[in-house]
Write a structure and sequence with these properties.
Elements lengths: L1 E6 L8 H15 L4 E4 L9 H9 L2 E8 L5 E8 L5 E5 L1 H4 L17 H12 L4 E5 L10 H6 L3 E3 L18 E3 L11 E6 L11 H5 L7 H22 L11 H11 L4 E4 H8 L2 H5 L4 E9 L8 H11 L4 E8 L5 H4 L2 E6 L7 H6 L1 H21 L1
Parallel strand pairs: 1-2, 1-11, 5-6, 6-9, 9-10, 11-12, 12-13
Antiparallel strand pairs: 3-4, 4-5, 7-8
Helix pairs in contact: 1-14
Amino acid sequence: MNIVIVPDSFKECLSAKDVAANISIGILEVFPKAKIIEIPISDGGEGMLEAITSGIGGKLVSVEVMDPLMRKIKAQYGILEDNKTAVIEMAKASGLELLKEEEKKPLVTSTYGTGQLIKDALDKGCAKIIVGIGGSATNDGGVGMVKALGVKFLNSKGEKIKEGGGSLNELSTIDMSNFDERILECEVVVACDVSNPLTGLNGASFVYGSQKGGDKNDLEVLDKNLVHYANRIESTLGLDISTIPGAGAAGGTGAALLAFLKGKLITGIDLMVEILHLNEHIKTADLVITGEGKIDRQTLNGKTISGIAKLAKRHTVPVIVITGKIDDDIEEVYTMGVCAVHSIVNKPMELSEAILKAPRLIQECTKNIMGTIAPFIAN
């Protein structure tokens, strides 16, 4: 039996690599002779760097950068074996994972560190830069990132505005005179798992600002400031980025990557399918097992599970989903090619307990699934 395991991470619990390993253990308890291929994956957020570098090879580069609150940290990015392609996971420098709960402040958090990673890749001669922009702690429209590449964002007095989305209302002039134009000679590919525009009720601030620590008033301020920011970009660069799908990703970092770095937005799962040659692996499989920490309506919108299911459906390969939590209104996922969705939580328990026991819960859930299908395989 040929089984391809292609999970995303269980956020704040297990990496995609660990999820895949525990699914394998459960399979082998029932099918000890199964041929298993583990392909940890990411849709552009946390885990993308590990998924790509472990999947096709490359080296990790460690750089001193500024975290979302402008404190010095060490962050890594990857350079693939061609020595010309950099893989940057925004969360490593500007992610929520770097902050304690009380430190989540979207009015002041900055993407500056992400820009420093990009600059280091340029210094090392990279001609292609892949940027995964999931998991950010920021809502600054990518301004910090662009600052690190030499652009000055000035107020009406000609002074540099402060870091964070809360200061964008002060923006008067965008000074491009010191912009590092080497980036324009690069191919910039942006792995993005959302299609939200920059502003409005479906935009960066109102949809994602609260998970970055913003309250209702903060979200209104941030959205208003991003509208102002978009106007300044249009007057300076002649580009209206306010309604472009994906511009609102990572607190508006998608907009900056489009406007200043001339990036190409692509869904994270489509990028992974291409880079990791998933089509070749899945088309010869008897079964695909995928999963992520939670399955909900967002799963239907370009997330890992929907992308894998659609790919497997083209080859008539059944897909089983293993997840930590199943939300309401997921019926549509079955039309995409998913045969069954299973939660690893096998009895009432607190989230903290589920996280602690996740490896064993994944193994037991997988073993039960395999045990259910074993009689049919035997026949």
